[in-house]
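Quick one, probably user error.
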């Protein structure tokens, strides 16, 4: 049997290798309606767009993620028993693998639109962190929208789906071609200066504003358009099967990103050897985004010509998980956290007034959903390697 192998990223947590027969294709599927334009309200939680999708007439919660293909929960598959097209080896960031089906979703509805015969992965959303914290039933990915134009307005918390660009009446948009890979993921040209540009995935499921590969980072540092603010060695996230392996990471300041005559200044991101070029949903905080999958064009209408990136501060560390408790995952150099002797592996007992002594599913979701880092001060209680319990007030810097 002839097979293809495809790599895709699902909400920055799963690296998926998909193997399927020649007749199975993520480009399959249709939209029942023609000449359509529908407005879809959404929730915005932890930089994730969540929309209502009807499956068999029942509303379900799906993440809108252009860095993924369509994904449904095992519960939906158990109820609907969709036809199996193939299989997938689903690896988390630790390389631990589990099998996943590829099925053909007969019909689902988003607003007034009906999507038919769409290939989809099947995963256990209840065991997939952080999908379980968001009470998610699946992911609507790029392959679903290949016959659509998608407009995202974060201020209104609305997505508009249409097949006619004129119905959006975009005002003086910046535009650049979209390159669409074989499973429908959109790549766009990013300009950091007049001299440096590169292709990056537009990943609406990604938490970061922008991610840079090591190759691009080296280039922009040499050109003086970015610099490393802090260094660290450790982990800043977890996979569905546990914590990722520690690695060297950099906290990077990028001078600007240009969209024609408009620019966004002083963007801060975290970069490592594994980082790929991508731009995420934080971009929508600075303008409206339109993905024209039909004509393969990306549009951006900035709110202002010159804007400054807002999420610039740090408390000098990142938390992570162990099997039974929470710990310091990484400590950044040249920070208060480093100066007081905070180190990787120290057990976190409390952040502000939240007791985190024991790792539980409830505490996992509290740590994910609660924004403990939104204020200028943070109270941290921890246990060091000698078993001493200490409390410290950290100042945002």
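Nope, works fine. Designed sequence:
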């Amino acid at each position: 049997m002839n097979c293809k192998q495809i790599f895709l990223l699902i909400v920055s947590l799963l690296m998926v290798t998909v193997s399927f027969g020649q007749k199975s294709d993520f480009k399959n599927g249709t939209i029942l309606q023609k000449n359509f334009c529908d407005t879809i309200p959404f929730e915005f939680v932890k930089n994730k767009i969540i929309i209502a999708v009807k499956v068999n007439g029942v509303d379900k919660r799906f993440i809108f993620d252009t860095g993924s293909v369509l994904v449904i929960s095992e519960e939906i598959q158990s109820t609907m028993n969709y036809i199996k097209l193939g299989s997938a080896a689903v690896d988390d960031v630790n390389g631990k693998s589990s099998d996943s089906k590829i099925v053909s979703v007969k019909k689902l509805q988003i607003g007034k639109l009906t999507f038919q015969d769409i290939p989809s992965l099947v995963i256990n959303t209840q065991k997939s962190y952080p999908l379980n914290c968001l009470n998610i039933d699946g992911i609507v990915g790029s392959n679903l929208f290949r016959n659509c134009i998608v407009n995202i307005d974060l201020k209104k918390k609305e997505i508009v789906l249409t097949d006619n660009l004129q119905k959006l009446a975009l005002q003086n948009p910046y535009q650049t071609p979209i390159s669409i890979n074989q499973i429908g993921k959109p790549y766009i040209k990013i300009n950091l200066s007049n001299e440096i540009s590169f292709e990056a995935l537009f990943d609406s499921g990604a938490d970061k504003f922008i991610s840079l590969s090591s190759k691009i980072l080296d280039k922009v540092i040499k050109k003086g358009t970015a610099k490393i603010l802090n260094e660290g060695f450790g982990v800043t996230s977890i996979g569905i099967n546990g914590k990722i392996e520690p690695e060297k990471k950099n906290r990077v300041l990028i001078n600007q990103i240009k969209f024609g005559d408009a620019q966004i200044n002083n963007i801060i991101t975290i970069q490592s050897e594994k980082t790929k070029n991508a731009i995420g949903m934080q971009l929508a905080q600075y303008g409206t985004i339109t993905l024209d999958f039909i004509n393969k064009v990306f549009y951006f209408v900035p709110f202002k010509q010159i804007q400054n990136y807002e999420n610039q501060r740090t408390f000098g560390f990142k938390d992570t998980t162990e099997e039974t408790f929470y710990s310091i995952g990484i400590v950044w150099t040249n920070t208060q956290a480093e100066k007081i002797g905070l180190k990787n592996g120290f057990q976190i007992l409390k952040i502000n007034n939240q007791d985190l002594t024991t790792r539980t599913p409830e505490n996992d979701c509290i740590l994910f959903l609660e924004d403990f880092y939104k204020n200028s001060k943070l109270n941290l209680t921890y246990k060091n390697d000698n078993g001493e319990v200490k409390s410290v007030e950290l100042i945002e810097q």
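Residues 35 and 118 are 20 Å apart (CA to CA).
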